[in-house]
Design brief:
Aspartate Aminotransferase, domain 1, eight-stranded mixed β-sheet, binds pyridoxal-5'-phosphate, 367 residues
Length: 367
């Protein structure tokens, strides 16, 4: 491919001189689970977000453990966006809570009007997902949560470093979760995740759950599980974290160039930025109108441009959630209509302006 969607080989080559000694340090210390490397990463990532952090096995575990720690009433309802990765829904369903899908607005995050409509006496929490790198409308979500006495879980898996009204995502709700899946803005060399919160008691409960139900070895004060960030991943993440702001800035440069070059292109809808949201562009998602998405995607592939679909199906259209007894049926027309229009263009710090121009030219030609 002439323009790659993601280029982890390039990033790894750039970092090799720092990654290798970091890995050698872990090998020399032979502390593979826990220990100084993990503790330091938790401190550094917590300082970056502005909350306390706990490393866990991956972003899905982070969400599942965070929800378990909140101890929401049995069978109560959690509102979540219809347009998100399956992990957001899995974490709610696996906690035996009911799901209520909320439609998205033109920022592709939760529609506040639809959220308000779907709050019921059974609702116990809202899962705000900061999709594609853009914050949900956290002031409106916080106001509704306060009014109806609901908990907020933030899914920040796609939004490391994003903010809303100059406040970092991950600090609005009671608890927030990050994924460090390799392709994320901050990615490990395998699975990894984190839970962040400023509620020390809640975070201690999460730590307990993730460490077999106890804070000390062989102390099992509750039924726990195993979900730990390992030291090799922590060492890799510690090399990458100081570069995250610069990488996010490069993503912003590429996004602005796409926006400039593709403005007013017929048959194409560019991303809408929410006022007050500082987006970190995990993905740059456009919509291709008039039923032409698949042919445009094919033409781009022929021109050497790699693209993605996030997501080919909105969650309410997926078999696991269609007519499921644990899902309150509700309409999500935008999310369902847009699943056949969305197209993710190459995005990442691996791109330069010349490549952004190549993508924009190829897209205009394809259209
Ligand atoms: C929005 C969202 N939530 C949760 C996750 C789950 O993270 P992980 O893959 O680390 O389990 C992901 C990433 O894949 C995601 O994009």
């Amino acid at each position: 491919m002439a323009v790659k969607f993601l280029d982890l080989r390039k990033q790894t080559a750039t970092l090799r001189a720092e990654i290798e000694p970091a890995i050698a340090r872990v090998l020399a210390n032979a502390a593979f689970i826990g220990g100084a490397e993990v503790e330091q990463f938790e401190r550094e990532f917590g300082a970056f977000v502005g909350a306390n952090a706990l490393g866990v096995g991956n972003g899905t575990d982070a969400l599942e453990i965070a929800i378990e720690a909140l101890n929401l009433p049995k069978d109560s309802e959690v509102l979540l966006p219809a347009n998100t990765f399956a992990a957001s829904a899995e974490a709610i369903a696996r906690n035996r809570l009911r799901l209520v899908f909320v439609d998205c607005d033109n920022t592709y995050t939760m529609s506040i009007a639809d959220l308000e409509r779907k709050i019921s006496p059974q609702t116990s929490a809202i899962m705000a997902v900061h999709l594609y790198g853009q914050s949900a409308d956290m002031h409106a979500i916080c106001a509704l949560a306060k009014q109806h006495n609901l908990q907020i879980i933030e899914d920040c898996a796609q939004a490391h470093g994003a903010s809303f009204a100059s406040q970092k995502v991950g600090t609005f709700g009671e608890i927030a979760c990050f994924s460090f899946y390799p392709g994320k803005n901050l990615g490990a060399y395998g699975d990894a995740g984190a839970i962040v919160s400023n509620n020390a008691k809640l975070l201690a409960t999460c730590r307990q759950i993730a460490h077999h139900g106890g804070l000390q070895k062989y102390e099992h004060s509750r039924i726990g599980r195993n979900s730990r960030l390992d030291s090799l991943q922590a060492a890799v993440l510690r090399v990458k974290l100081p570069r995250l702001n610069a990488w996010n800035a490069q993503r912003d440069t590429i996004a602005r160039e796409y926006m400039r070059l593709l403005a007013d292109t017929k048959g194409l809808v560019l991303p809408t930025l929410r006022q007050q949201a500082q987006c970190v562009w995990h993905l740059f998602v456009v919509r291709i109108l008039d039923g032409k998405r698949d042919i445009v995607r094919q033409r781009l592939a022929e021109a050497g441009i790699e693209t993605g679909l996030h997501y080919p199906k909105a969650l309410p259209s997926c078999a696991a959630y269609q007519n499921a007894p644990f899902v309150r049926t509700s309409a999500t027309p935008n999310a369902c209509a847009w699943e056949s229009e969305i197209l993710s263009l190459p995005m990442g710090e691996h791109l330069d302006l010349a490549q952004a121009r190549e993508v924009a030219d190829a897209l205009r030609n394809a259209l």
